[in-house]
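Re: the 195-residue chain
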Amino acid sequence: MTEIKIGEKIKAKRKELEYTQEELANILYVTKAAVSKWENGESYPDITLLPKIAQLFNITMDELFDYTLEYKPLKIVNEFHFGISLNNVDTEILNHGTVKSCTVCKNNGEWDTCIEFISNEEGFPYTLQKHLKKRVLMDGYSIRLADGKILDDDKPNKHYVCKEKIWEYHLSNRAYIKNMLKEQTEMGYIDEENI
């Protein structure tokens, strides 16, 4: 906890207004010794005097206590992670994030470059959707960060993206997952045996 420096503020403002300790004491109906003790940090003014002192010095209570608000709003960022096959997307997608790792793999019998891709762009799944080729389903997850620390909340943290639709959901929502898998099966993106 920070030290209360109200005595220093009273002394500075009293001198600024060219009051003696005795004159200030008379205005506040206290003794000169009380004002002296405040200014030397030996005691504090009675709580009922604080608004009157602030008003007399034409300052706020925060200024009297030499308090400044140190609040800064949390910056919350979604960090999207997708495994992307470069054969399935327009490579323009690479301008929207960072490649964390890259491997060469076989995809449907053809050699392909597969990347682990991370983006902090707001709404990245919608950007990815625009760059997908037809009949491709990509899945990924997101982490919500507040000033660099992971938030554990009920916001969507799993994403499936295809040209026709984006499914965003929280892993704990079983009913949503069941309906989503049903939709993906009906759309021909997954086989019923894979559910």
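The first strand starts at residue 76 and ends at 85.
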